[in-house]
Write a structure and sequence with these properties.
The protein is of the alpha/beta class and 433 residues long. 36% of the residues lie in helices and 17% in strands. It has 13 helices and 18 strands. The protein has helices at 10-22, 48-59, 72-85, 115-128, 142-158, 179-189, 200-212, 226-229, 255-266, 272-293, 316-325, 415-418, 425-432; strands at residues 2-3, 41-42, 66-67, 89-91, 108-110, 133-139, 161-170, 176-177, 193-197, 221-224, 243-247, 327-328, 335-336, 347-354, 357-365, 369-372, 410-411, 422-423. The strands form 5 sheets. A 9-stranded mixed β-sheet has the order 8-7-6-9-10-11-14-15-16, sandwiched between helices. Helix 1 runs parallel beside helix 10 and helix 2 runs parallel beside helix 3 (72-85). It is elongated and about 100 Å long.
Length: 433
């Protein structure tokens, strides 16, 4: 398992899945005398090169599959090594479009749909509310940019307007650089609907700045993506009314059992993010079981990917196909891959932060579109209805020049009382703007 240092709770989910399979607590998986085990390798969240080397390290241990890493850009580095040596890889939440139907990544399986699908769900929510103007704020990474790229295409087709498109920088330790400038640009654009695409740790920093600058007041709507809405851990109470999209988990057949087991073991609620890792272990288990039933003999090999003439794993394709073709219950919807390695069921839950709890208020599927309970939806500060933009000069100081000509611009003879030097139609119009 390859994971970033910031998400070590992945080990808990993976460990629980392995224990439950080995102890025959998953009714649909029986591995006879075989037992699962895992090793964990820490790699930088964004660094493809580092993740490539962690994959190489893992394959020296005679494994049958790699789970992780977390982000799509990191998954590419890993897949370069895996595809070269025929090693099956499950990237639980990798979602970038370039991972799908790519012949260079033919040993990759994904548990969530590609990011362009999430853009369709966001667009449906915006259209449902009658909005046509938005601002986009995203991290300047493959994850941040690619998720909203499809949304920009949709906006162009629908003739909507992006009032601000801001990308923020992240340093090596995860701090945001220049985020205040990005937020000022959004505020000055007149936008009131902000789509935020980044990780939760980054979002919490952004909300602190946005709150101080008045971007979290009444009349604002922030829509956050799956990477934020899928984490159930602490969110500040003043984010009440936040809108989120998260991959449709539907609390699958195993959810209650696994959630209870996780809580009993760790004294905390399992977050949706980590359920994907639990289900990745299930997918491997279903694949092994399928091979056992077909009496296929699999022999793990010590693989060296640094050699120029690296020898691929002879049984790798067989293991990959067995995992891909196997299916069964899970903590989410179900384990069921398409021929291209993605999930067979595609959908997103629309969630609304009520207090500190994400509440499901609707859903979007590729077959049925958007379903939303408007009576359960509210925005920041408890507002039920907002417009998509304010004044385009809000927060700006503009200097204009004109000529004195009645009734447009005239000297105000009562300026000692009114405090204004000029009056007239142009002055009244600027006041209204």
């Amino acid at each position: 398992v390859i994971l970033p240092l910031e998400f070590t709770k992945v080990e808990r989910a993976v460990g629980l899945a392995i224990d439950m399979i080995n102890e025959n607590e998953i009714d649909d998986i029986r591995l006879n005398a075989s037992k699962l085990s895992a090793s964990f390798h820490i790699a930088d969240l964004y660094n493809s090169y580092e993740n490539f080397h962690r994959a190489c390290d893992a394959m020296k241990e005679k494994i049958i599959a790699i789970i992780g890493p977390m982000l799509s850009s990191a998954a590419i580095g890993t897949q370069i090594a895996c595809s070269k040596l025929n090693m099956p890889q499950i990237a639980p939440i990798a979602s970038e479009t370039y991972l799908a139907n790519n012949p260079n990544y033919n040993y990759l399986l994904r548990l969530v749909p590609i990011s362009t699908v999430e853009s369709l769900a966001i667009a449906a929510f915006i259209e449902h509310n009658g909005w046509t103007k938005v601002a986009i704020l995203a991290s300047n990474t493959d994850f941040g940019i690619n998720t909203v790229s499809k949304f920009r295409e949709i906006i162009s087709v629908k003739s909507w307007t992006i009032l601000a498109f801001e990308l923020f920088q992240i340093d090596k330790v995860g701090n945001l650089s220049g985020i205040e400038n990005n937020l000022h640009a959004i505020k000055n654009s007149g936008a009131r609907i902000v789509i935020l695409n980044c990780l939760k740790s980054q979002a919490l920093q952004i909300f602190q700045y946005a709150r101080k600058m008045g971007l979290m007041d009444k009349g604002w709507c922030w829509i956050v993506v799956d990477a934020i809405a899928s984490e159930a851990s602490y969110l500040p109470p003043d984010l009440n009314g936040l809108i989120g999209l998260r991959y449709h988990t539907n609390q699958g057949q195993l959810y209650q059992k696994v959630a209870a087991k996780y809580y009993h073991r760790y004294n905390e609620t399992v977050e949706p993010l980590y359920l994907y890792y639990f289900d990745s272990v299930l997918a491997v288990g279903y694949g092994i079981q399928a091979m056992q039933r077909q009496e296929k003999q699999i022999k793990a090999a010590k693989l060296i990917c640094s050699d120029v003439n690296a020898i691929p794993w002879n049984d790798g394709r067989q293991v990959l196909d067995s995992i891909k073709e196997a299916s069964g219950p899970s903590t989410t919807s179900s384990i069921n891959f398409t021929s291209t390695g993605g999930p067979a069921k595609i959908g997103f839950d629309i969630v609304n932060l009520h207090g500190r709890t994400w509440s499901k208020v609707g859903n979007w599927t590729n077959s049925n579109g958007l379903t939303l309970d408007d009576n359960q939806v509210y925005f920041l500060q408890g507002i039920n209805h907002i417009t998509d933009s304010g004044s385009f000069v809000s927060g700006k100081n503009l200097i204009t020049t004109t000529i004195l000509e009645a009734p447009f611009t005239m000297i105000d003879d009562n300026h000692a009382i009114t405090g204004r030097k000029y009056k007239g139609y142009m002055i009244d119009l600027m006041d209204e703007i």
